[in-house]
Amino acid sequence: MIATLALVYLLIANLFCVGFFIDMRRKLILAFDIKRDTDADMTDRINNISLIKASGTEEFEIKRLEEQNKNYEDGLTKFTHSSALLNTCLTFVIQLLIPIIFIIIAVQYLSNTQSSNSLGANIALIFPLLSTLIGGIAILLPSLRSATAASNAANRISELTDPKPLIHSNLKGYKIDKINSIVFDNITFSYPKKPERIVIPPTYLTFEKGKSYAFVGQTGSGKTTIAKLLLRFYSPTQGKILINNEHNLNRINLPAYLDHIGYVEQEPQILYGTFLENIKYSKFDATDEEVIEACKKAELHDFIMSLPDQYHTVLGQRGFILSGGQKQRLVIARVFLKDPDVVILDEATSALDNVVEKEIQDKLEELIKGRMCITIAHRLTTIKNVDHIYVLGANGSGIVQSGTFDELKKQPGHFRNLYEAGLME
């Protein structure tokens, strides 16, 4: 009787465990699928961090990531709960079964329905069976530990994606409606980790709506730092940047400010997603018709329509299906859609060959009409028509020359040396 009871119990327990394991495996696979997609998406966003910073979409991305992590944590929590429930139930039932079996054995022995030999045989049979059950529970523990380790890894990833920023978005700050002028009011800049190295010495500059400006100079002269200060990737070490001659950029609502800034850089920032998703990143509420019009201006529409999925074509990791020129056209379409007051071109065509550069430069000329434009120049040919050029000297010497293209090429100095040597052309 006792052996039969143990065998029946073992069969029921095994069926119970199999059902639980199937459910747990399904939950774990679902959680890991979510984690895989989240990790891939996070890697893509990290690769395109300058686009996110320049677009002022940190809050949007944080909410996206939180939602993705929540889905993963919810799936993992369901698996962990199932593991804990199975472990608890089996342990409880086994612990309860042992005294019940001993009571039955004792009752049978005392009532003389069981001999000493059969008592020993029953005990010899029962305990190996119980050991088998307990061993099955022990097998669950590594799975539970693995799930816990995965949960801890997810928490560490969350910590990495939630750093303490050096630049605050100041969401309660003043929201500007438009940008008519930007003033560098006696600013200086040094990197926080190297305060003794002056990148930009005391500088006063004024940028006005409808005019174009360019910065040239050798590597390390601070050209790109100017662009990053305008985008507020950095804050000035001293002095302040005034918007419309009155509002300190540090006190302005940063996302609202960046809504008026268009940024085109040397390495186009392409997100994993479709053409529509990539171009709408500059204006989330844009209609499909507005996206198409922007692509027509950037001369990208015909290429998109030649693809099987057209605007719903997935571009792949960092837009690997696109050529360098097509990537820049996509970024230009993004800026056309945004329709900003200010356009910043940070060596936007330096990575392109001469033929493609000429095509892209024509689109950029159309893009900047009527807007404030600041160009970080790699080639002098890209800035022949700008209103004012600033030449930056090496080793933090700041602006050493300024004027129009025609004026500077006639003046002795760094700019004419570059022009006569055929450099940056």
Written description of the protein model:
Helices cover 54% and strands 13% of the residues. Strand 9 and strand 10 (399-403) form a beta hairpin. The chain has helices at residues 2-47, 49-55, 58-110, 116-160, 223-230, 254-258, 275-279, 288-297, 301-305, 324-338, 354-368, 405-410, 414-421, and strands at residues 181-189, 200-208, 212-216, 238-243, 247-248, 261-265, 342-346, 372-376, 388-392, 399-403. The relative contact order is 0.10. Helix 1 (2-47) runs parallel beside helix 4 (116-160). It contains 13 helices and ten strands. The radius of gyration is 34 Å and the shape is elongated. The chain has 425 residues and is of the alpha/beta class. The strands form two sheets. The chain has a six-stranded mixed beta sheet, sandwiched between helices. A four-stranded antiparallel beta sheet has the order 2-1-4-5, with no helix packed on it. It is a multi-pass membrane protein.
